[in-house]
Amino acid sequence: MNNRRIKNIIEALGKHKDDESIQVLNELGTNCPIDEIRELTSKALIRKNTHNALELMIVNKGKGINDLSARVAMCAINELLALKDKQEAIKILDDTINMHSEKEVQDTARSVKALMSFSS
Amino acid sequence: MQKISPLRSSIEAFNKFKALRANKANKTEKTQENQTNPFGITFKGTVIQMDVFEKTDKAEKATSPSLKERIQNTGKLLASAWVGTINKFSSLKTNAIAFGNKIKDNTIAAAKKIRDIGNTKVEFDVFKYNVSRLQNQPVSELRTMLSNELQGVSNE
């Protein structure tokens, strides 16, 4: 896929100040069957670095770092590692490790947290 | 019978030979004179000499034309050059007219195109889908735009 318009809209939604943009990205972007669009959406949401956006990418099964596509998951992890302020992300990761019902999600969160502690 | 001495007889023989030779020489001279008049035409008894005949130097005349002829020839050359120039100018004129007509047609076509463009609303993707411009738009609008684009991609 090489659609510059979709990329620009997702990027604009990622930079948008309105919290409703997170909902739009979650509904249209993370549920899209095209890997590249999910990848772009993950990047846009993680770059927002807000609690709601990061929670979507860390806690939800099949989205963000838990995506079924390894490429999308790795892209989300890379984006988390590239964050300047990782405080909020680590906090959510800790909560996920401690309180999430799914063991798979807990393991993924643990791995990502380990990576983040190494990188910082 | 007179007795002839050998010396006298030899002198006589020499004289005869001399006379004969003189006669022969005269004959050759005459033929040389008559060469210009091969038919031996006479006028009041005298043989017509070569001066009477017309000189055959017409070819020479043709090779070196007189001043008048030269002027005439120059005039002809000038006339032909002038005709050539007229032809050139006429061709230039037709070319210029064709060029002018072409420009006119192109201008009319361009004016029509501009009129059509003026009637239709032209939106440039570069400006419409600029990130900084999209950022300032309401999210609902972005939602519809994204859903439309995604539908287009999934239909491909």
What features would you describe in this structure?
The complex is a heterodimer of chains A (120) and B (156). The termini of chain A are far apart. Chain A has helices spanning 4-15, 20-29, 35-48, 51-58, 70-81, 87-99, 103-119. In chain A, 72% of the residues lie in helices and 0% in strands. Chain A has 120 residues and is mostly helical. The relative contact order of chain A is 0.12. Chain A has one domain (4-119). Chain A contains 7 helices and no strands. Chain B has 156 residues and is mainly alpha-helical. Chain B has a domain at 1-51. In chain B, 73% of the residues lie in helices and 3% in strands. Chain B contains 6 helices and 2 strands; from the N terminus they run αββααααα. Chain B has helices at 6-34, 58-63, 67-119, 125-128, 131-135, 139-155, and strands at 42-43, 46-47. The longest helix of chain B has 53 residues, at 67-119. The mean pLDDT of chain B is 78. The A-B interface holds A 1, 3-6, 8-13, 15-16, 18, 20-21, 24, 28-29, 32-34, 37 and B 125, 129-131, 134-135, 137-140, 142-143, 145-147, 149-150, 153-154.
Distance between the termini of chain B: 159 Å
Main sheet of chain B: which strands, in order across? 1-2
Bin the strand percentage of chain A. under 5%
On the 0 to 100 scale, the average pLDDT of chain B is: 78
Counting DSSP H or I runs of 4 or more residues, the number of helices of chain B is 6
Overall strand count of chain B: 2
Describe the global form of chain A.
globular
Order of helices and strands of chain B: HEEHHHHH
Oligomer: heterodimer
Strand composition percent of chain B: under 5%
- Please provide the ordered H/E string of secondary-structure elements of chain A: HHHHHHH
